[in-house]
Amino acid sequence: MKIANGWRDYKILATSDGMKLEDWKGVKLLRPDPQVIWKGANLYEADYDAVYRRSEKGGGAWEIRRTFPSEWTVSYKDLTFIVKPMGFKHTGLFPEQSVNWDECRRLAELAKSERGEVKVLNLFAYTGAASVALAKSGATVTHVDAAKGMVERAGRNAELSGVTGGIRYIVDDCMKFVAREIRRGNRYDAIIMDPPSYGRGPGGELWKIEKDLFDFVLNCAKLLSDEPVFFLINSYTTGLQPMVLQNILTLALKNFKGRSEAYEVGIATEEGIPLPCGAGGLFTGENYV
Questions:
Q1: Is the pLDDT reported for residue 202 higher than 70?
Q2: 105 near 133, Cβ under 8 Å?
Q3: Cβ count within 10 A of residue 80
Q4: Backbone angles phi, psi at 288, to 5 degrees
Q5: Which of 38, 45, 66, 275 has its CA 20 to 30 A from that of 263?
Q6: Is 265 helix (H, G, I), strand (E, B) or coil?
Q7: Helices 174-184 and 209-221: angle between axes, nearest 10 degrees
Q8: What spatial distance separates the first Cα and last Cα of the chain, rounded to whole Å?
Q9: Angstrom distance (rounded) from CA 252 to CA 47
Q10: Rounded to whole angstroms, how far apart are CA atoms 94 and 91?
Q11: How far is CA 158 from CA 81, 82, 107, 153, 192, in A?
């Protein structure tokens, strides 16, 4: 497991009975987490500013206990991001992904020192933490997400982090965008993707990760330069083991020289245990292993 433990503005204070209590730079949020199947203290009796309560009819809503800003910022190393309680318990940031930001930045900086330019494609790019991190390290990033509001948030995160260029923002369905890039003959040195478990495109196209991920990665492989730097797949899909991602990368990128690996992603807690937060699969080109 790769464990995110370098945060100062974010902490997981406690976990118990399907919930996690977090401190986001002084704002304490209590949120559901399906990985927390153990029991400890009753976190509903803890000190917090807001809790996300699920509804028996599906979805849920935030219940505010104390007034706090509608949005604020947290920093990780030289990066700054907006935090805002949103629908479906989200805040617009996944702190555990800092382990992937760090590794991708390291690889991009190494490649840039050799190539002069590193072109990265970030798919299902959400609010752009990975895009901002890579642009901060000098990569040229194409950021693609179908949600206009999330792409706009990515632009704000870039400004807050002092990134004034290097990111091209695209509001589009990722599968359609990749198909067009293949026809255009465009190439990228690295690809990142964080595909949803299930979703529909703007034209009603159905996406199911178990059915569609492998073929999509095969298509994305057509966009890689001859000597790719890396290809990262991140997944929060319950039941999708890390080795599945490694196998997909190994098979889909068999024409490229390099190494594929699989790992759990987790984040340190104040309880002294890591909280599992999904899976990663990373292909690293042979020149950067």
A1: no
A2: yes
A3: 18
A4: -125, 5
A5: 38
A6: strand
A7: 20
A8: 19
A9: 48
A10: 8
A11: 8, 10, 20, 9, 17
- The residue whose two tokens read 């792409």 is 151
Among the listed residues 129, 140, 143, the one whose alpha carbon sits nearest the alpha carbon of residue 189: 140
Closest CA to 38 of 283, 281, 269, 280: 269
Type of residue found at 231:
F
205-212 contacts: CB < 8 A, separation 24 or more?
205/173, 205/175, 207/175, 209/235, 209/237, 209/240, 210/237, 210/240
pLDDT of 181-190, one tens digit each? 999 999 999 9
In this structure, which amino acid lies at residue 117? Answer: E
Three-class SS state of 23: strand
- Which domains, and CATH codes, for the chain? 2-70 (2.60.40.1180), 95-285 (3.40.50.150)
Instruction: List Cα–Cα distances, 196 to 102, 146, 174, in angstroms.
Output: 22, 12, 11
> How far is 83 from 28, CA to CA, in rounded Å?
12
Q: What is the DSSP letter of 224?
A: B
Distance in angstroms (rounded) separating the CA atoms of residues 101 and 96 = 10
User: Tell me: the pLDDT tens digits for 207-264?
Assistant: 899 999 999 999 999 999 999 999 999 999 988 999 999 999 999 999 999 999 999 9
Q: Could you tell me what percentage of the chain is helix, strand and coil, using 3-state DSSP and rounding each to the nearest 5? A: 30, 35, 35
